[in-house]
Amino acid sequence: MTTAGLVWSNLRRRPTRTFLTLVSVLVAFLLFTMLRSVAVAFEGGGFGEAGASRLVVAPKFSIIDPLLYSQLREIEGVEGVAAVTHADWFGGIYQDRRNFFPKFPVRPKGYFELYPEFSIDAEQLEAFENTRTGAVVPTGMAERFGWKVGDKIPIEGDIYPLRDGSRLWEFDLVGTYSTGNARRDESGSGVFLFNFDYFDEARMFGEGTVGWFIVRVTDPALAPEVASRIDAMFENSVNPSRTSTEDEYNRQFAKQQGDIGLMTTGILGAVFFTILLLTGNTMAQALRERIPELAVLKTFGFTDGSVALLVLAEAVALCLLGGVVGVALGYVAMSALQPLLQDFFGLIEVTWPTIASAIGVAVALGLVVGAAPALAARRLTIVDALRER
Predict the structure, then answer these.
(1) Where are the alpha helices (DSSP H) in the chain?
(2) CA pair distance 269, 248, nearest whole angstrom
(3) Where along the chain do its domains lie?
């Protein structure tokens, strides 16, 4: 019988207890994987390398404050600026509030120029540019709702009514685009884009204003300097701005939800404290049941150290198995949820550092849980142990 065989045999001694303990550890590491992935994305911006040369010029005091469209020309004249476009938050409801997806009025060619990771057929982009009520959507979104080019898409405006008081906006679908992320496209998420000219002419209020500007700089290294120049230019205006990199802007937006890192740490701390007590109790109970057997092992020549190692290995194996399965399930869960969250929080994925830290925590948990039973097994004398029979 090998050491691994003995460990496996001991874990199967009480299959129900082992299974329930394993499930508890599994759930803990499932939560660890998901929460840490979200926290890492919130802390790092999460939007990858594509936005390294992009800045976001937003209202200084509140995201609901408007910026003037005329500010675009001034931003274009700032040294270090290569291109500028803009977008706005439209809101809106398609059929049912559960059918949520972001909707932005944009300058068609300008927007796709600033987002080269998005790909669209040249003819469809031209149609988008020249169709007053035109709109384009991600390919997955079109499949999700059964849309095809030529369809009219009704959106109920919950923020912006039309000039005639109606809230029913109708858009002509003139094309689809790829977001550059296969999982995102397959999920049907992404941004519904429509022509800003139509939006600006038809809305009841806010004409001549935009929500934010997107700026591409000539060199990513110049981004902080360009951001300072833009903000200084509007510092004393009625529409002051706050400019930051795209990653930083999204990070600040995420922080409005609260200190995600602190919240996830608190949750995980409570979870793992509970798991520590639960698993520790399981191992202590298992040791009490096997005291005579450990004495027999020592009688057959097992040293105190090898018996202690056997007990410790059992604890580590239990925690490591639960940890690995929990991480695997967490990876699957985040792969499914990531496309739905990416529009707001960027690329949320399970990274190798997160996986490595989870495995490290699993091993550490096993060592802590198994330390006391292993020490007790080491100190056990054959005579005293056999008296327990």
Answers:
(1) 3-11, 15-44, 71-76, 108-114, 122-130, 139-145, 182-187, 196-202, 223-233, 246-255, 260-289, 291-299, 304-345, 352-379, 382-387
(2) 28
(3) 3-45+258-387, 54-255
146: exposed, middle or buried (Cβ count in 10 Å: 0-12, 13-18, 19+): exposed
Alpha carbons 197 and 389: distance in angstroms, whole number: 87
Distance in angstroms (rounded) separating the CA atoms of residues 29 and 136: 40
Contact 207, 200 (CB under 8 A): yes
CB 311 within 8 A of CB 377: yes
The whole-angstrom separation of Cα 237 and Cα 230 is 12
pLDDT digits (tens, 9 = 90+) for 90-112: 999 999 888 888 999 999 999 99
Q: Give the C-alpha separation, 52 to 220, whole Å.
A: 6
Q: For the chain, what's the residue count?
A: 389
Full-model pTM:
0.67
- Model pLDDT for residues 227-268, shown as the tens digit of each residue: 999 999 999 888 899 998 887 776 666 555 555 667 777 878
**Cα(276)–Cα(283) distance, integer angstroms:** 11
Spell 5-26 as b/e; 16+ CB within 10 A means b.
Answer: ebbeebbeeeeeebeebbebbb
Amino acid symbol at 160: Y
Q: CA 223, CA 103: separation in Å to the nearest integer?
A: 27
Taking the C-alpha atoms of residue 172 and residue 170, their distance in angstroms, rounded to an integer, is 7
- Residue 322's nearest CA partner among 269, 365, 386 is 365
